């Protein structure tokens, strides 16, 4: 993958998250990087104070640092800020962090030397990943604590993941063909300022949500057939009158999935007028989720290409300007909105599941098992789905509405973007399980209508599910079935069957 700074696409970032390890910087970027580095070096040689170059940081910005202590200034900055706690970020997210930091520094507004950018690229090339604790950032003044752990690795401090094993930083650098770096003026600050961690976590949540939404459309179509529901609510004319393109997109996907279903044909004259909302309002609910996914994806793509450290170097005039691009409010809002969407997917899927196990609504055997009484079927699987859907209601409360001042009130309003992005992952993970349980129930329901068959598309999904999970004849240890179905949702195997493009041209 060749990165042109400022032009990264979500498709490229998604590929990196999914396992692509090739990441090169376009040759045109190096001269821009060199020019900015020369500008910083010139400013460092002057007596005039320049924030982050020859001064302290935050509330200590007015403290002038002697020239012979500028390297120590940057080293101490990294060491004192490497205070992350909690579990390490997963490897795909760390790869995104490194790629986003390279893309930002390569815009030529950070003033770092090419040696620093080359070192980050070497980490990516050799898949040497810094151990970045997930907690410790409030999403303003950059993701200081987590990004400091990247800087610490480059200095030979801390640990890294190499071929799945945790090794000391010195050994990890050797694997990447690197020696410990000493940071030039502003380089430590440029590394830890920026929204790359919160953005990377949010992007990973977005990519997981894309798969989950697509899988929910597939499971929802199967639920319609399992409950002998109507296709009329998906008629394109209904959605054209409302005018929301995403609503029409979901309706079209459901229509395509159900086209040719023998179950649909079997009850054309049943006399039922309307289905419950969880079936007939899928385009309205999932379409609204699709709408916000597309909007927030655009926000995160812009953020991924932005320069978010401070201060910023403008080589044309030789100025270094202090601002607040490190404030991650756009990322916080995006992650919070995506979490709300994810919770709604799970809420809708849980209601479909509840409908299917209820004989009075679905017309299927109670709890989707033929010999009820001695067998409980999907009774308690629905309780698990309800528990997760309910948990999501609390998790969907926005983190971005909170702020706790830091740095002696210099940083008096923060975004909480990193927590918002981490929380998004919890909501998506819960929703993946709810969708998976609903998928199992819907497949079971369709099979209980044999010899009738669903559409060719949905029968392919049923066959896929049955490769991993058997038909539910008798009560058995059900947790492994749910785990396997959840993995199908998480890995995108179900999403591949959805005739729905989540992100247009992205």
UniProtKB/TrEMBL annotation:
Annotated pathway: Amino-acid degradation; L-histidine degradation into L-glutamate; N-formimidoyl-L-glutamate from L-histidine: step 1/3
**Could you provide one GO biological process annotation from this protein's UniProt record?**
L-histidine catabolic process to glutamate and formamide
Answer whether the UniProt record assigns the keyword Lyase to this protein: yes
Q: Which SUPFAM superfamilies match?
A: L-aspartase-like (SSF48557)
Extract the Pfam families matched here.
Lyase_aromatic (PF00221)
Top EC class, one word: lyase
UniProt keyword Cytoplasm, yes or no? yes
Where is the chain membrane-spanning? none
A single GO molecular function term of this UniProt record: histidine ammonia-lyase activity
The catalysed reaction is: L-histidine = trans-urocanate + NH4(+)
Q: For this protein, what is the EC number?
A: 4.3.1.3
Post-translational modification here is noted as:
Contains an active site 4-methylidene-imidazol-5-one (MIO), which is formed autocatalytically by cyclization and dehydration of residues Ala-Ser-Gly.
Instruction: Give UniProt keywords alphabetically.
Output: Cytoplasm, Histidine metabolism, Lyase
Query: Any idea where this protein resides?
Result: Cytoplasm
What GO cellular component is one of the record's annotations?
cytoplasm
5-imidazolinone (Ala-Gly) cross-link, chain position(s): 140-142
**Per its UniProt record, what NCBIfam families does this chain match?**
hutH, PRK09367.1
HAMAP family named among the record's database cross-references: His_ammonia_lyase (MF_00229)
User: Which family, according to the similarity comment?
Assistant: Belongs to the PAL/histidase family.
Q: What is this protein called?
A: Histidine ammonia-lyase
Record lineage? Bacteria, Bacillati, Actinomycetota, Acidimicrobiia, Acidimicrobiales
UniProt gene name: hutH
């Amino acid at each position: 993958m060749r990165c042109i700074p400022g032009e990264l696409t979500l498709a490229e970032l998604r590929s990196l998250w999914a396992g692509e390890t090739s990441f090169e910087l376009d040759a045109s970027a190096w001269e821009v990087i060199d020019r900015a580095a020369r500008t910083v070096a010139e400013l460092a040689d002057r007596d005039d104070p320049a924030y982050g170059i020859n001064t302290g940081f935050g509330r200590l910005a007015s403290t002038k640092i002697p020239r012979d202590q500028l390297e120590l200034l940057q080293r101490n900055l990294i060491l004192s800020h490497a205070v992350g706690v909690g579990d390490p970020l997963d490897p795909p997210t760390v790869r995104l962090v490194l790629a986003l930091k390279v893309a930002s520094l390569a815009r030529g507004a950070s003033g770092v030397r090419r040696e620093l950018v080359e070192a980050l690229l070497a980490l990516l090339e050799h898949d040497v990943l810094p151990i970045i604790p997930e907690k410790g950032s409030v999403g303003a003044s950059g993701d200081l604590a987590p990004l400091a752990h990247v800087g610490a690795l480059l200095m030979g401090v801390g640990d890294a993941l190499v071929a799945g094993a945790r090794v000391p930083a010195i050994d990890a650098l050797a694997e990447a063909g690197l020696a410990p770096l000493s940071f030039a003026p502003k380089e430590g600050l440029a590394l830890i300022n920026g929204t790359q961690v919160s953005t990377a976590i949010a992007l990973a949540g977005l990519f997981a949500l894309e798969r989950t939404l697509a899988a929910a459309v597939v499971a929802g179509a199967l639920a319609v057939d399992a409950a002998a529901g109507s296709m009329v609510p998906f008629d394109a004319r209904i959605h054209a009158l409302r005018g929301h393109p995403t609503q029409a997109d979901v309706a079209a996907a459901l229509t395509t999935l159900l086209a040719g279903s023998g179950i649909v044909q079997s009850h054309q004259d049943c006399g039922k007028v309307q289905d419950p909302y969880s079936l007939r309002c899928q385009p309205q609910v999932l379409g609204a989720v699709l709408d916000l996914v597309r909007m927030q994806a655009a926000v995160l793509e812009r953020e991924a290409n932005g320069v978010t450290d401070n201060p910023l170097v403008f080589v044309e005039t030789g100025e270094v300007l202090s601002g607040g691009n490190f404030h991650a409010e756009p990322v916080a809002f995006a992650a919070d909105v995506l979490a709300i969407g994810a919770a709604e997917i799970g809420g809708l899927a849980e209601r479909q599941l509840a409908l299917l196990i209820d004989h009075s609504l679905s017309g299927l055997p109670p709890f989707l098992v033929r010999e009820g009484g001695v067998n409980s079927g999907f009774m308690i699987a629905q309780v698990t789905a309800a528990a997760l859907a309910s948990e999501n209601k609390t998790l969907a409360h926005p983190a971005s509405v909170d702020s706790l001042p830091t740095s002696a009130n210099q940083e008096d309003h923060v975004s909480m973007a990193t927590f918002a992005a981490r929380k998004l992952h919890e909501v998506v993970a819960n929703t993946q399980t709810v969708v998976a349980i609903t998928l199992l129930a819907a497949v079971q329901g369709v099979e209980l209508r044999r010899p009738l068959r669903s559409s060719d598309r949905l029968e392919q999904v049923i066959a896929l599910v049955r490769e991993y999970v058997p038909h539910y004849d008798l009560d058995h240890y059900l947790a492994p079935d749910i785990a396997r179905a959840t993995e199908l949702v998480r890995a995108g195997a179900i999403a591949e069957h959805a005739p729905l493009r989540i992100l247009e041209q992205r």
